[in-house]
Amino acid sequence: MSETLKKTLSLPKVVPAVAIRDVVMFPGMSLPLSVDRPKSVVAIEMALGAPGKYVLALSQKSAEVEDPKAQDIYQFGVLSEITQSLKMPDGSLKVFLQGLVRAKVEKLEFNDLSNTWFASVDYIEEQEDRSPVVQALMRKVLDEFDHYARVSRRIAVEGVSFLRQIEDPSKLADTIASNMVVKTEQRQEILEATGIKERLEKILKLITSEVEILGLEEKIHSKVRAQIEKNQKEYYLNEQMKAIQKELSQKDDFQKELDAIRAKIKKNGLPAAAKEAAEKEVDRLQKMAPFSPEATVSRTYLDWLVNMPWNQTTQDVLDLAAAKKVLDEDHFGLDKPKERILEYIAVSKLTEGLRGPVLCFVGPPGVGKTSLAKSIARAIGRKFVRMSLGGVRDESEIRGHRRTYIGSMPGRIIQGISKAKSSNPVFLLDEIDKMGSDWRGDPAAALLELLDPEQNKDFVDHFLDVPYDVSKVLFITTANSLSGIPNTLRDRLEIIDFSGYTDYEKHEIADHYLIPKQMKLHGLKPGSLAIAKEAVALMMREYVREAGVRNLDREVGTLCRKAAKKYVENGGQKISITAKNLHEYLGVPKYSNFATEENGVGIATGLAWTSVGGETLSIEAAKIPGKGQLILTGMLGNVMKESVRAALTYARSRGFGKGVNFDHTDFHIHFPEGAVPKDGPSAGITITSALVSLLSGLPVKKNLAMTGEVTITGRVLPVGGIKEKFLAAYREGVKTILFPHTNEKDVAELPEKVRQALRLIPVKHMDEVLPLALEGYRAPQAGKKTAVKKAVAKKAVGPKSAAQKTSARKAAPKTAPKAKTKTRAQAPARRAKKSVKKSTRR
Predict the structure, then answer these.
(1) What is the mean pLDDT of the chain?
(2) Could you give the residue numbers annotated as active site?
(3) How far is CA 205 from the centre of its chain?
(4) Which of 38, 45, 59, 49 is nearest to 115 (CA)?
(5) pLDDT of 296-330, one tens digit each?
(6) Which among 674, 677, 670 is positioned nearest to 691, based on CA atoms?
(7) What pLDDT is attached to residue 146?
C-alpha cells in the first residue's frame, strides 16, 4: 500500500469547506489567508475545533462574487491543514493553510444551522511514475521555467536552483504551478490533472505560452520607448514653434494663463499695493520660461495674492438675544466670558466699525476655552479658524517664508484667512503659552504686530510682502497659565480667567451636555440608560479630580460604553446606574477625600496653585536626633526652601520647642508626591503651623486648610491663585480656610455656593493663625494679653453655626493667673500628646 493511500485512509470523508478567491491551493503549498466572510469564518472555527484541523480549500470561479453558491465554486480542491490561526478584533481570522492532498467533491451542501459549507470528498490517490518520459518532461519544464523566471522578472532566479533539487515529479509540478503568475482557470486545470505526465505536459505548454507572450510584451515595450523618444523630438519642435508664434504675436497656452491672472486681478478688487505687486509679478512671469523653477514660485505667489479674500466678509449677526441663546446652548456657566462677548456685539451694533478685541482665555484644561471660541463664531455668524501654537518655534509659522525657494509658503495666519474665504473670521490661537524660541526666531515677537489693534491693520506676511488688514479678525487666544506669555505680548491681550467648575456646575454640565452627548455617541437612545444624581456625585468625588470636565466626560463615556454592552446582553432592558452599583462599571475608586483628615501633630494641609487648577498640599514635619540640620524633601524650589527656613526661624524666635536641644536635633520637612516639582511662597503659614504643631505636640485641626506667605516675624503676606485654591478646597471637602487678609478682595470672585459652604477666615499674623489651626493652643508666654479671639470673630467670612462659634471661643487663648502658670499652660499640651499617642496606637 502506497504512502499516499495510507494517508488518505485516515482523513475524514466530510469536512468544512471554504471558498478562496484569486488563488488555487496545491498540495504541499503554504497559503496565508485572511478570512472575513461569515460562512468562511464558521468553517475555519469548526475545523479548528475538530481533530486534525482539516478544511477543504475550493477556488471560486469568479472573485467578484461576494456570497458564492455551489455553482460558483470549483468541485475540485485540496484538503488543507490549519497550521496557524489568529482572531482579529473585527471578528475576522488570519490563518495559514498547508495543502495535503487533492480531493474531488462528491457532494457540496450548505448547513443552515451552522451557516457554512460541508463537502463529501473523494481523495485522489496519486500513482508514482518515474519513467524516462516523465524524467525528460521534468528537465524540460525546469529549463522553460528558468527562462520564464528570467523574462518575467517576477520570480527570483535563485529559486529555480531550489526546484532542481526536487526529485518527486508530482511535488515539482505542484510547486511550479503554484509559483506561476497565470489565471485562476489555468491553475485549476493543472490542479485537476491527476496524472503526473498529463500535469507536466500542461505546465510545459502553459510556460511556453507565457514565455511567448512575455516576448511580445518586450517588443511592444521597445516600440513604446521608441515612440516616446519620437514624442520628445516632437515636443522640442513644438517648443520651437511656440517661440516662432510668440515672435508673430500669436497666443499660446501660457499667454492665456497670464491673461486669466490679469482678469482675476481686476475682478477681485485688490488694494492698490497688492494690485501693483500682482501686476509687476505677472510682467516678470511673462518673461520667464513657463516650466522653470522661478516660474513655479511666481505662479504660487500669484495664486495666493490674487485669491486672498481682500474684500470678502461675512455679515455679523448682531442680535444679543440670539447670541446669548447660542452661547447658553453650548456651555453652562462661564458668565464672565459670555458677558464680554455680548458687550462686543452690543458695541459693534452701535458703532458699526469696532475693531476686534484680542481676548485671552486663561484657565486649566477642560473648562471650555476652545469650545467657547467655536460657539462665539456661531453666535455672531462668522467663519471659525483654529491654529495651535503649542510647540511652535519658527517665526515663519506666523509671518510666512520669504520667496527664496520653491517650497516657500505664507504663514499660517494668512493660510487660515484664505481657507476661511473671509477677512473677518473668528481666529483661535490655541495654547499661546506653550510657544518656544530658537535660532529660527521668536514666534511671540511675531505675534506682537498681529495682536496689536493699532498695528494689525497693515500686517505684512513675508511671503505676500504686501500689507493685509487683519483688524477685522476677532482673535481669541487660550492659555493654561500666564507665566508662559511674555509681558510685552500679555500687554496686548484682554485676559479673561476661566476658573474651575464647582460640583453644582459639573452636575449641570453632566446632566445637560455630557451624558446626552455620550449616549448619542454610544448608540443609546433616550430612556435606555438612567444615571442617578447620586452616582454622578460619587463619580466626581472618587473618580475625577480636576478643575474642568474633560476627565468627567471620559468617565461618562466609560459608563455609556459598559452600559451599551450590558444593554445588548440583556436584550434591550433599561440600565440604571446608582451610587451602589457605580463601582461595578468604573472599578476601584481613583481618589479618596482624606487630605484634611490626615491633619495631626506635625501634619498640616496647604493650598497650591498649578497650571491645571488648584490642589491641596499636605506638609509633614518630624524631629530626630542629629546635628541641628534642616532636611527638606519633595522636589522643592528655592522659594519654598526659603519659606521653610523662615518658618523655623519664627518658631524658634517665639519660644516654641522648650526643652528641645536645637543643636542636637534635625528637623525633616517633607512634601508628599515627591516626584512633582513644588515652588512658591503660598505654603508659608502651613509650614509654620506644622512646625509649631510638632514642637508643641498639639495636633492641627481636621478639615482645615490654609494658604499665605509668612515672614520671620510672623506676618502673613498675600498670595495669588486664591479662587483656584478655594475651589480645590471646596472640591476636597475642606470646611475652614485661613488666608491672608489682603486677599479678601479675591473672595468676591468665588461662586456664592462656595462662599456659603466654606468658613473663610482672613488673618494678618501667625498669632491669629495658630489658635485657629492647633487644638488646645496657648501662647508660649503665659500671662501675655492677646486680642486674637476678638480679631478672629470680626474677620471670619461666611456663616457660622452655633457649634462653630463655640469652637472659635474654645480656640481663643485665655489669660492664665500668674500663679501656677507653667503647670496650667503645659497641661493641655500633655493631654494632647497623650491623646495623639493613644490614637496612634489605635
Answers:
(1) 81
(2) 682, 725
(3) 60
(4) 38
(5) 888 888 888 888 888 888 888 888 888 888 888 88
(6) 670
(7) 77
The position carrying cell 472573485 is 63
**Is pLDDT above 80 for 235?**
no
DSSP state of 715: B
Reported residue count of the chain is: 842
Cα gap 396→488, rounded to integer Å: 20
The contacts of residue 432 (CB under 8 Å, 6+ apart) are 360, 389, 447, 477, 478, 479, 485, 489
DSSP 527-592: TSEEE-HHHHHHHHHHT---SSSHHHHHHHHHHHHHHHHHHHHTTSPPEEE-TTTHHHHH-S-S--
Confidence of residue 818 (pLDDT cuts 50, 70, 90): very low
pLDDT of residue 830: 45
DSSP state for residue 743 in the 8-state scheme: G
Residues 625 and 664: beta-carbon distance below 8 Å:
yes
- The DSSP code sequence of 3-26 is HHHHHHHTS-SEEEEEEESS----
For 514-529, what is each residue's pLDDT tens digit?
Answer: 889 898 888 888 888 8
DSSP letter at 406 equals T
Does residue 825 register a pLDDT over 60?
A: no
| CA–CA gap between residue 254 and residue 251 (Å, rounded) | 8
pLDDT of residue 9: 58
The single residue listed with the C-alpha cell 468676591 is 748
Q: List phi, psi (to 5°) of 250.
A: -95, 135
Cell 508643641 locates to 696
What pLDDT does 839 receive?
A: 36
Query: Which of 596, 767, 774, 647 lies closest to 699, judged by CA?
Result: 774
- Cβ count near 224 (within 10 Å): 10
Distance, in Å, from the CA atom of 36 to the CA atom of 365, rounded to the nearest integer, reads 42
CB atoms within 10 A of CB 164: 12
pLDDT greater than 50 at residue 587: yes
CA distance 57 to 102: 10
Of 150 and 36, which is predicted with more confidence?
36
User: How many angstroms separate the CA atoms of 681 and 711, rounded?
Assistant: 10
In three-state secondary structure terms, 740 is strand
The dihedral built from the CA positions of residue 324, 329, 333 and 338, taken in this order, carries a sign that is negative
CA distance 728 to 737: 11
The CA distance from 803 to 684, in Å, is 29
- Give the highest mean pLDDT range of 247-251, 492-496, 705-709: 705-709
3-state SS assignment for residue 631: strand
Give the pLDDT band (50/70/90) at residue 8.
Answer: low
150-159, 423-432, 476-485, 721-730 — which is least confidently predicted?
150-159
Task: Output 274 or 594, whichever has higher pLDDT.
Answer: 274
- DSSP letter assigned to residue 434: G
> Cα angle at 560 between 558 and 561, to 5 degrees?
65
How far apart (Å, rounded) are the C-alpha atoms in residues 566 and 574? 9
Residue 157 pLDDT: 55
Pairwise CA distance, residues 840 & 697, whole Å:
13
CA distance 110 to 19: 12
Q: Per-residue pLDDT tens for 722-755?
A: 888 888 888 788 889 999 999 998 888 788 888 8
CB-CB contact of 678 with 637 (8 Å): yes
Helix (H, G, I), strand (E, B) or coil at 661: coil
Question: In this structure, are residues 312 and 270 in contact, taking their beta carbons and an 8 Å threshold?
Answer: no
Concatenate the DSSP letters of all residues of 332-360 into one string.
Answer: SS-HHHHHHHHHHHHHHHHHS-PPPPEEE
Give residues with Cβ within 8 angstroms of 453, minimum separation 6.
Answer: 355, 356, 357, 358, 471, 492
Residue with cell 528641645: 660
Query: Exposure pattern of 83-113 as b/e (b: 16+ CB <10 Å)?
Result: eebeeeeeebbebebbbbbbbebeebeeeee
